[in-house]
Amino acid sequence: GESVGLHLPTLSVQEGDNSIINCAYSNSASDYFIWYKQESGKGPQFIIDIRSNMDKRQGQRVTVLLNKTVKHLSLQIAATQPGDSAVYFCAENMGYSGAGSYQLTFGKGTKLSVIP
Amino acid sequence: DGGITQSPKYLFRKEGQNVTLSCEQNLNHDAMYWYRQDPGQGLRLIYYSQIVNDFQKGDIAEGYSVSREKKESFPLTVTSAQKNPTAFYLCASTLSGVDGIQPQHFGDGTRLSIL
Known about the structure:
The complex is a heterodimer. Helices cover 0% and strands 51% of the residues of chain A. Chain A is mainly beta. In chain A, strands 1, 3, 4, 8, 9 and 10 form a 6-stranded mixed β-sheet that branches. Chain B is mostly beta strands. In chain B, strand 5 and strand 6 form a beta hairpin. The chains are: A mainly beta, B mainly beta.
Protein backbone atom coordinates (compact mmCIF):
# COMPACT_ATOMS: atom_id res chain seq x y z
CA GLY A 1 0.00 0.00 0.00
CA GLU A 2 0.95 3.67 0.02
CA SER A 3 2.80 5.39 2.81
CA VAL A 4 2.53 8.65 4.66
CA GLY A 5 5.71 10.62 5.35
CA LEU A 6 9.20 9.25 4.97
CA HIS A 7 8.61 5.65 5.98
CA LEU A 8 7.87 3.50 2.99
CA PRO A 9 5.83 0.37 3.53
CA THR A 10 8.10 -2.63 3.16
CA LEU A 11 7.31 -6.05 1.79
CA SER A 12 9.76 -8.82 2.64
CA VAL A 13 9.54 -11.94 0.51
CA GLN A 14 11.51 -15.16 0.42
CA GLU A 15 13.39 -15.78 -2.82
CA GLY A 16 11.28 -17.92 -5.14
CA ASP A 17 7.96 -16.88 -3.60
CA ASN A 18 5.44 -14.65 -5.36
CA SER A 19 5.16 -10.97 -4.40
CA ILE A 20 2.06 -8.81 -4.45
CA ILE A 21 2.43 -5.05 -4.21
CA ASN A 22 -0.74 -3.01 -3.78
CA CYS A 23 -1.69 0.51 -4.72
CA ALA A 24 -4.83 2.51 -4.01
CA TYR A 25 -5.27 5.20 -6.63
CA SER A 26 -7.04 8.44 -6.07
CA ASN A 27 -9.11 9.39 -9.08
CA SER A 28 -12.01 7.38 -10.46
CA ALA A 29 -11.56 9.17 -13.81
CA SER A 30 -8.01 7.82 -14.25
CA ASP A 31 -7.72 5.75 -17.40
CA TYR A 32 -4.07 4.73 -17.56
CA PHE A 33 -1.90 3.13 -14.90
CA ILE A 34 1.75 2.25 -14.83
CA TRP A 35 4.20 0.45 -12.54
CA TYR A 36 7.82 1.44 -12.13
CA LYS A 37 10.77 -0.18 -10.33
CA GLN A 38 13.39 2.11 -8.83
CA GLU A 39 16.75 0.88 -7.56
CA SER A 40 18.81 3.01 -5.23
CA GLY A 41 20.37 6.01 -6.97
CA LYS A 42 18.73 5.27 -10.32
CA GLY A 43 15.75 6.48 -12.27
CA PRO A 44 12.45 4.59 -12.35
CA GLN A 45 12.35 1.69 -14.78
CA PHE A 46 9.11 0.91 -16.62
CA ILE A 47 7.67 -2.50 -15.72
CA ILE A 48 4.15 -2.72 -17.10
CA ASP A 49 1.14 -0.55 -17.85
CA ILE A 50 -2.59 -1.07 -18.16
CA ARG A 51 -5.47 0.92 -19.58
CA SER A 52 -8.80 1.24 -17.82
CA ASN A 53 -10.61 -0.88 -20.40
CA MET A 54 -8.68 -3.91 -19.10
CA ASP A 55 -8.62 -5.58 -15.69
CA LYS A 56 -5.51 -7.72 -16.12
CA ARG A 57 -2.33 -7.60 -18.11
CA GLN A 58 0.62 -9.95 -18.05
CA GLY A 59 4.27 -9.43 -18.81
CA GLN A 60 7.37 -11.46 -18.19
CA ARG A 61 7.02 -12.71 -14.58
CA VAL A 62 4.71 -9.78 -13.78
CA THR A 63 0.95 -9.33 -13.77
CA VAL A 64 -0.98 -6.14 -13.12
CA LEU A 65 -4.56 -6.31 -11.86
CA LEU A 66 -6.92 -3.35 -11.97
CA ASN A 67 -10.09 -3.15 -9.88
CA LYS A 68 -11.88 0.04 -10.85
CA THR A 69 -14.74 -0.57 -8.45
CA VAL A 70 -12.52 -0.06 -5.43
CA LYS A 71 -9.80 1.97 -7.20
CA HIS A 72 -7.13 -0.62 -6.55
CA LEU A 73 -4.12 -1.68 -8.56
CA SER A 74 -1.76 -4.54 -7.80
CA LEU A 75 1.52 -5.81 -9.19
CA GLN A 76 2.27 -9.50 -8.89
CA ILE A 77 5.82 -10.73 -9.36
CA ALA A 78 6.24 -14.46 -9.86
CA ALA A 79 9.23 -16.37 -8.46
CA THR A 80 10.75 -13.29 -6.85
CA GLN A 81 14.51 -12.95 -7.25
CA PRO A 82 17.11 -10.92 -5.32
CA GLY A 83 17.36 -8.59 -8.33
CA ASP A 84 13.72 -7.64 -7.77
CA SER A 85 14.66 -5.82 -4.55
CA ALA A 86 13.77 -2.16 -5.15
CA VAL A 87 11.10 0.45 -4.52
CA TYR A 88 7.99 0.00 -6.66
CA PHE A 89 5.77 2.93 -7.65
CA CYS A 90 2.34 2.99 -9.18
CA ALA A 91 1.24 6.02 -11.17
CA GLU A 92 -2.04 7.09 -12.74
CA ASN A 93 -3.14 9.40 -15.54
CA MET A 94 -6.51 11.02 -15.74
CA GLY A 95 -8.05 11.59 -19.13
CA TYR A 96 -5.34 11.37 -21.77
CA SER A 97 -6.17 14.00 -24.39
CA GLY A 98 -4.33 12.32 -27.24
CA ALA A 99 -2.04 15.31 -27.63
CA GLY A 100 1.08 13.33 -26.79
CA SER A 101 2.18 14.62 -23.41
CA TYR A 102 0.30 13.75 -20.23
CA GLN A 103 0.64 14.05 -16.48
CA LEU A 104 1.27 11.14 -14.15
CA THR A 105 0.40 11.19 -10.46
CA PHE A 106 2.73 8.94 -8.49
CA GLY A 107 2.17 7.01 -5.30
CA LYS A 108 4.86 7.15 -2.60
CA GLY A 109 6.13 3.64 -3.27
CA THR A 110 6.58 0.26 -1.60
CA LYS A 111 9.99 -1.20 -0.81
CA LEU A 112 10.39 -4.85 -1.77
CA SER A 113 13.12 -6.78 0.03
CA VAL A 114 13.93 -10.27 -1.19
CA ILE A 115 15.39 -12.64 1.38
CA PRO A 116 17.88 -15.06 -0.22
CA ASP B 1 22.08 2.59 -27.96
CA GLY B 2 19.10 4.85 -27.32
CA GLY B 3 18.27 6.38 -24.00
CA ILE B 4 17.93 9.41 -21.78
CA THR B 5 21.12 10.99 -20.44
CA GLN B 6 21.08 13.28 -17.45
CA SER B 7 24.12 15.22 -16.33
CA PRO B 8 25.77 15.83 -14.03
CA LYS B 9 25.01 12.93 -11.69
CA TYR B 10 25.74 15.11 -8.64
CA LEU B 11 25.48 18.90 -8.42
CA PHE B 12 26.05 21.38 -5.63
CA ARG B 13 24.46 24.80 -5.46
CA LYS B 14 25.60 27.80 -3.48
CA GLU B 15 23.16 30.27 -1.98
CA GLY B 16 21.80 32.69 -4.57
CA GLN B 17 23.09 30.66 -7.48
CA ASN B 18 21.18 29.35 -10.49
CA VAL B 19 22.14 25.88 -11.71
CA THR B 20 21.15 24.04 -14.88
CA LEU B 21 20.53 20.33 -15.15
CA SER B 22 20.94 18.70 -18.53
CA CYS B 23 18.61 16.13 -20.11
CA GLU B 24 19.26 14.70 -23.57
CA GLN B 25 17.38 11.89 -25.32
CA ASN B 26 18.12 10.09 -28.59
CA LEU B 27 14.87 8.12 -28.65
CA ASN B 28 13.17 10.55 -31.05
CA HIS B 29 10.53 11.14 -28.38
CA ASP B 30 8.34 14.20 -28.69
CA ALA B 31 7.33 14.84 -25.09
CA MET B 32 9.77 15.44 -22.23
CA TYR B 33 9.24 15.90 -18.51
CA TRP B 34 11.02 17.00 -15.35
CA TYR B 35 10.19 15.52 -11.96
CA ARG B 36 11.45 16.10 -8.46
CA GLN B 37 11.80 13.28 -5.92
CA ASP B 38 12.29 13.85 -2.20
CA PRO B 39 13.41 11.05 0.17
CA GLY B 40 10.73 8.43 0.70
CA GLN B 41 8.37 10.22 -1.66
CA GLY B 42 6.87 9.73 -5.05
CA LEU B 43 7.73 11.90 -8.03
CA ARG B 44 6.21 15.35 -8.52
CA LEU B 45 5.97 17.03 -11.91
CA ILE B 46 7.85 20.31 -12.39
CA TYR B 47 7.51 21.06 -16.12
CA TYR B 48 6.71 19.19 -19.29
CA SER B 49 7.02 19.85 -22.99
CA GLN B 50 5.03 18.33 -25.80
CA ILE B 51 6.99 19.83 -28.71
CA VAL B 52 9.90 22.16 -29.42
CA ASN B 53 9.42 25.73 -28.16
CA ASP B 54 6.43 24.75 -26.05
CA PHE B 55 6.29 23.78 -22.37
CA GLN B 56 3.76 23.71 -19.56
CA LYS B 57 3.98 24.08 -15.79
CA GLY B 58 3.45 21.02 -13.65
CA ASP B 59 2.44 20.89 -10.01
CA ILE B 60 5.57 22.48 -8.52
CA ALA B 61 6.98 24.86 -11.17
CA GLU B 62 7.78 27.76 -8.83
CA GLY B 63 11.52 28.45 -8.65
CA TYR B 64 12.28 26.47 -11.82
CA SER B 65 12.57 27.31 -15.51
CA VAL B 66 12.98 25.24 -18.66
CA SER B 67 13.62 25.64 -22.37
CA ARG B 68 12.99 23.37 -25.35
CA GLU B 69 15.02 24.65 -28.29
CA LYS B 70 15.73 21.19 -29.68
CA LYS B 71 13.67 18.01 -29.71
CA GLU B 72 16.48 16.07 -28.04
CA SER B 73 17.14 18.48 -25.18
CA PHE B 74 15.11 19.77 -22.24
CA PRO B 75 17.35 21.54 -19.68
CA LEU B 76 16.02 22.51 -16.25
CA THR B 77 17.28 25.58 -14.38
CA VAL B 78 16.89 25.64 -10.62
CA THR B 79 16.82 29.31 -9.76
CA SER B 80 17.75 31.07 -6.53
CA ALA B 81 14.01 31.54 -5.96
CA GLN B 82 13.72 27.80 -5.22
CA LYS B 83 14.34 27.84 -1.47
CA ASN B 84 14.45 24.10 -0.96
CA PRO B 85 16.23 22.72 -4.02
CA THR B 86 17.86 19.68 -2.41
CA ALA B 87 16.30 16.68 -4.17
CA PHE B 88 16.75 14.02 -6.81
CA TYR B 89 15.75 15.38 -10.24
CA LEU B 90 14.48 13.03 -12.92
CA CYS B 91 13.92 13.63 -16.60
CA ALA B 92 11.57 11.50 -18.67
CA SER B 93 10.38 11.31 -22.25
CA THR B 94 7.65 9.61 -24.18
CA LEU B 95 6.70 8.88 -27.75
CA SER B 96 3.45 10.48 -28.75
CA GLY B 97 0.76 9.95 -31.32
CA VAL B 98 1.25 6.25 -31.87
CA ASP B 99 -1.38 3.83 -30.54
CA GLY B 100 -2.54 6.19 -27.81
CA ILE B 101 -0.76 6.83 -24.54
CA GLN B 102 2.80 5.52 -24.22
CA PRO B 103 4.83 4.93 -21.03
CA GLN B 104 7.25 7.56 -19.83
CA HIS B 105 10.88 6.45 -19.73
CA PHE B 106 13.36 7.95 -17.29
CA GLY B 107 16.98 8.93 -17.07
CA ASP B 108 19.13 8.10 -14.05
CA GLY B 109 18.72 11.44 -12.37
CA THR B 110 20.75 14.31 -10.96
CA ARG B 111 21.14 14.69 -7.22
CA LEU B 112 21.24 18.37 -6.25
CA SER B 113 22.50 19.52 -2.86
CA ILE B 114 23.01 22.88 -1.19
CA LEU B 115 26.53 23.90 -0.16
